[in-house]
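User: Teach me something about this protein's shape.
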Amino acid sequence: MGSINLRDVSVLTPTPLFRNLTLTIGDGDRVGLVAGNGAGKSTLLRCLAGQAEPTSGDVVRSRGLRIAMVEQTVPDSLLNLTLDEAVRRALPAAEREAAAWRIDVTLDALGVPDDLRTRPLREASGGWQRLALIARAWIVEPDALLLDEPTNHLDLAKIQLLERLITDPSRRTIMVIASHDRQFLDACTTRSLFLREGVSCLYAFPYSRARQLLSDDDAAREAAREREAREIRRLRQSSNELRNIGINSRSDAAQRKSMLMARRAQRMEQAMRPLHVERSADIR
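Assistant: First, the predicted structure itself:
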């Protein structure tokens, strides 16, 4: 079916949302995208869909790859259409008549009541509007499906229905799912990408297992950073002591060694990466 390849992708707005993101998303991958609010999840989905360009790097899609995206809000242009017409408009104009049967099949699969299908979309609840957007994406039979907070406004029964559709073993659709819903990510994803301003982290597990591995890795990075900080403090203290010895004894060798130690401490300090701090709760 194809793949989406990211090569050193960065987005600055003007502060960094994420940097140097490199990964391949291929057939059957269902990637959970996790980050704090405003940390770049929707931006990355738009980059994958070709609706936005990264500040640097490349997003390479397989030739002919069909991509559909479920955004968080209903476009104003759809609100006055009936629900079934809003779904029909997702099809290419040349296919709408011949493929009309797919509308009913898709809406039946999503459990949309018959009477709701002929009412204006603006009159539908948030949950049904969300399912209408999902139906618009599903009906085009995409090779890659991008979902931005797909469980918003859905009750438990509809979430479980969506989970069954996403995890249908007969489908090899590439999926990238941005969500704050832990249980939904655990049920639907096979990989987890924690999007970060510095170094983003990818794990070959659903959310809960990946989150534990991320916590372990963060703890190891924090311990390593503390060791580096202690070494920097030791070098600076030793450099100051040698400098004083060199001044008092008029020893050029001591002063040269002091300068070398100070430079080493400075290089280590410049190379230290700041620890990641969540901008907001990244999951519920």
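Now, about its shape. The chain has a mean pLDDT of 87. The first strand starts at residue 3 and ends at 12. If you'd like, I can walk through any region in more detail.
User: That's plenty for now, thanks!
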